[in-house]
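We close this part of the discussion by returning to an individual protein. The encoding preserves chain order, so positions in sequence and tokens coincide. The sequence in question and its structure tokens are set out directly beneath this paragraph:

===
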Amino acid sequence: MMYGAESLRLPSAELAARYRAAGWWRDETFLDDLARAAETRPEHPAIIAYQGDTPRTICYRELADLVERFAGALLALGVERGDVVATYLPNVWQLTPLWLACARIGAVSAAMFPALAERELRYTMTVSRAPVCIGLDRIGDLDLGARMAAAAPDTVRHRVVIGDGSAADAIDFTEFFLATEHPAPDPALALRPDEPAVLVCTSGTSGQMKAVAHTGNTLYAAARAGAEPYGLGADDVIVVPHPHTHMAGMTYGALMPLQLGATWLLYDRPNDMGLLLDSIERHGVSWAYMSPGYLVDLIARQRERARDTGSLHRIVSGSAPLLPDLVESVRDTFRVPVHALWGMTENAAVTMTRPADPDDWATRSDGSAVPWMDVRIDAAEGEEAGRLLVRGASQCLGYLHQRDTYDECLDDDGWFDTGDIARPDGRGGIRIVGRRSDLIIRSNGMKVPVLEVEGLLARHPGIKELALVGYPDPTVPGSELCCAVVVPDGQPPTLAELHEYLGGTGMARVFWPDRVQFVWQLPRNSLGKIQRAPLHQRLELAAAPR
């Protein structure tokens, strides 16, 4: 059993039986999906991976062979059943067969993306006691091999590096995993569907980083959530430019196509929307998941030089609100609908808008729940919005070595407090209006819907980026006023101009910011997420009596 598994909430026999009876969990794993595809369609492309401008196509027969080869190499490095193997990799072709090779020998994969700095990298390797860490030598001028070496605790016995510039004290991946023959693993070692299979790290924007543990079955439910509402099948080609070592990239970009026996496209330049458009045209991509920021760039590159994107049937988006003009621009540019999706690292996709919804529904809703997830809004009497609670078949096992932290998010009936604030969308779904940690509550009890206000202000031509932050209201202790912390784009807008702009959108005056503060840049963590706590503290100090 994985080190620290006692800190997790492993599924009870009763819960597992109930989920299986409903068809939400299964007795198979993703290894069975691979074996089935390798037998029934061995030459069908499983992975099309771009490293630079050159694609490498891996068929299902080859993928199955790679998994066996990589599994033998991990065993030769001394990886035992229950050990953790850390994968510190961008979207490269080696990633998926490495994950499956871990499952093949009963090991657990710890997914870590290259944006993690040394501090976060050391934390993940330390809490998981990973004896092996596999990473890339470098990305551009960034020496990932050196970072991995500096971060590795004493528990890391082997560092494996992919690339020509492999460090002298590390194992060369090509030589050891591809060019060297190792004994075949015992089939009895393979992970069972309800055992911990993957650790995915949260960014830590609201506190200490967390290593979120998922099983094969919670990931199976998560992958189904991306496929079934949109009718995906074995002939689809799927692309997710997000890092595949994070939840969205892992579930929709790698595991969902594998479960379907379909094809997934990945490339190591996630911000290159020109390359993505070229690959949509070249490989017939039919389904894509990407956040609004990617969509803005995708539209711009398509308008610069049009590609044939007729194969693309649907785009699903998450991570931030979808504004009406963006959805309209996607529809005008690509002739496809945009769907909204909401989920977390702890449970992946939970709600999404559906093909039968109105065309613009993604601008007003985050969708309704999949059948295997329950959603509840815990609102105070007389309030529409409240705490968003979820439970169901894709809910994780908890946070490795942080049992108390996870238990604080659960009630006696198993409802998980997401930390989000939501309201009903009027059609049986939800609309996320903010996170409680970001929520600004005025002296009259009105709650500022932070994400919605930010989404509107982000369209102002004088704003490059911004964060809405609360600061103490001197007239009513315990309540807050609202400040727009703005990185200007050209001439900084005045507060009066922001008020006029929001008034034109129909946003209620009570939600308008009370002041505006300009900064050169917003503080971010190593994953690029805005850190509101330093901004809040700065405003708090400025508002304190002297």
In short: The two ends are 57 Å apart (CA to CA). The mean pLDDT is 90.
